[in-house]
Amino acid sequence: MKTQVAIIGAGPSGLLLGQLLHKQGISNIILERKSSGYVLGRIRAGVLEHTTVQGLEKAGAAERMHREGLVHEGVELVFDREKYRVDFTEAVGKSVVVYGQTEVTRDLMDARAATGGLTVYEAEDVALHGIDTDAPYVTYAKDGQTHRIDCDFIAGCDGFHGVSRQSIPADVLKTYERVYPFGWLGLLSDTPPVSHELIYVKHPDGFALCSQRSETRSRYYLQVPLTDKVEDWPDERFWAELKNRLYPEAAGRLVTGPSLEKSIAPLRSFVSEPMRYHKLFLAGDAAHIVPPTGAKGLNLAAGDVQCLADALADYYHNRSTAGIDGYSARCLKRVWAAERFSWYMTKLLHTFPDSDDFEQKMQEAEFNQLVLTENGAKTLAENYVGLPY
Ligand code: APR
Ligand code: PHB
Question: Which residues form the FAD-binding domain (predicted)?
Fold first, then answer.
């Protein structure tokens, strides 16, 4: 087989890139090691920045998001029971759309199916070859046979544990990492959200987040020690601890119910540079990871692939290499801004097991900077609704 761009990974990055390239008349094939059902089974954050909404519109996959997505014009922060609302619309004239990543993925899968684009699911042993030559190609195994795809470029959209980043020589790649000393226990339930907006809580007993998927489906998180297991948290214990960390009015409104899904995820900041090596381009989680406190993971992925699709269109339509040559530097500028914001929100709102009295005072002072200075709220709002890519 031959195609112009071989895409590794059918998560949000790979699927959105496939659609954007299709819209530009650039042929592409997606290789995904899991089944489509497995990919859709992942529960991930669903706060869409305006640039992500634009990306889905360009991809022809925004209709249901516009119909069912929830427009949020602000967010509530609670710091040791002191409440403060950041009004995005007042501060920066923008809003966000709350719409689960599972739904984004489903819409992108449907849009790709409508174009007839080839996605090979359950493609095993994907390997990249000749990425530093003029004739790169990808091999994979399926149904007991080895297949080869010759291409012009390879897009590594295969996430943190993928094969693409590992295909860049170790002496070329520079990585940066911070692993946080706690995890997030997430619970999904068919119960009405406790509030019409998201509530981020810093409580002496730990962080909590109240989010939602619709007006009848809620998503909640609790900071837990890394040593905890899901089986340590029966639903009753989860609901009791969430009420403990919420302020009384919200705790009184909380509607509890059986969990549809419950899992513990670690928190990590990670960046690998560069995001391009000859004919290989990394995008999304393959290149970077953010702690979910800033809701940036999906949005960074969407920004990367919009930048990459523009660059490849410039190459194929105008025979210009300016876009592909500038891809890594352009993406990393936005990636590091999101890494900073996600790290800031994580430091501000979590209880760090080894923090001393001075560090706790710094957290309080940081929160006061936010609520007492005009620029504090504006800066948070600008970063939360999304910086331009
Ligand atoms: N071969 C083929 N596919 C692979 C391989 C491989 N060797 N390794 C991983 N994959 C697939 C995974 O199965 C997954 O479906 O690549 C896809 C990567 O998807 P994500 O991990 O979701 O990453 P990305 O598409 O960049 O989306 C980033 O997803 O994880 C969240 O928080 C993250 O919201 C962010 C978004
Ligand atoms: C979610 O809805 O899953 C979510 C929302 C905001 C975050 C993280 C997760 O910061």
Answer: 2-342
- For ligand 1, say whether the CB of 185 is within 6 Å of any of its atoms: no
Give the predicted TM-score (pTM) of the model.
Answer: 0.97
pLDDT band at 389 (very low <50, low <70, confident <90, very high): low
Query: pLDDT tens digit string along 256-277?
Result: 999 999 999 999 999 999 999 9
CATH number for the domain that contains residue 128: 3.50.50.60
Distance CA 290, CA 334 (A): 12
Q: Give the residue numbers spanning the domain of 26.
A: 5-72+95-176+268-350
Average pLDDT, the chain: 96
- Identify the active-site residue in 99, 200, 277, 316: 200
Tokens of 300: 């960074």
Please list, in sequence order, all residues whose beta carbon lies within 8 angstroms of the beta carbon of residue 202, skipping any fewer than 6 positions away: 77, 78, 79, 80, 348, 349, 350, 351, 363, 367
Ligand in closest contact with the CA of 383: 2
Q: Whose CA is nearest to atom 5 of ligand 2?
A: 45
Taking only the tens place, the pLDDT of each residue in 227-239 is 999 999 999 999 9
Residue 316 annotated among the catalytic residues of the structure: no
Q: Which ligand is nearest to the CA of 13?
A: 1
